[in-house]
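Because discrete structure vocabularies remain unfamiliar, we first show an illustrative case, written as a sequence plus integers encoding its fold.
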Amino acid sequence: MIFDFESEYLYKLQEDIKANGFETIRFASYRTGAKLRFVQKKTHLNNVDIWNFVEALKEACLSGNDHDALISSSELLQLFTSLYQSMNKRLPPSQHVRVNNAATTLVHWLLAVYKSRPGKSLRLFSVKVALATMAAGKIMDKLRYLFSLLCDSNGKMLPDRFHNFLEDILAIPSVMCESPTFSFKEELLDQVFSDPKEVTITVFIDLIMSDPIPDCLVWLPLLHRISTAENVIHDVPCSSCPRESYIGFRYNCQLVLAKNNPGID
């Protein structure tokens, strides 16, 4: 089971994930990215920019950097209701969403990610990490915002916050049944940064954008690659079917240079 709650919205989301055949994707990083992109669309976060989320936090007086602050389910519902109401104002009427349904779905998904229950509170830090990860926007903007949650007044990373960050961000692929590959382990802390106290925003961004990226985070930039590439039209014939062009990822065979294939395999 992907989600823990008896909700018609979440049950439909779970069934849609299965019906779209994401489990047949061979590589865990692509499979995770595809699942999260699907959830992003289902929760309409693909229309919520990271700065829209930051503004909603400010309006709700939740933009402080209190690492231990908690937020209740009812407060989350109010926050997301405001977020989707503002989103509807920006979008044409044909793209408007049912605000209460969207807000309720997102609350339940977050509660599932962090293994909480309706009526219980979540750490606001965890909510910020999850929404910054899943919201739309430029990955560099999102990484800058995420680092602002992790650093002290001198711009250096706080080790305890990095610990919580890694634990919280890896809970996202874990709830999508990808915990065998992407789950938090204490030994990951030293594998990512041997000395977090010396990490600055430049080092943090360079790590996430590097090649190779630490294995536990490889799905994060891939989620953004999927969102960027899914509407790109390739005017080349597919080597596996009669199509003269296709949309989305384009794969070139390393053995046969003229061979092109679409999709995530």
About this structure: Residues 29 and 132 are 19 Å apart (CA to CA). The first helix runs from residue 8 to 19. The chain is about 50% helix and 5% strand. Residues 1-6 have pLDDT under 50 and may be disordered.
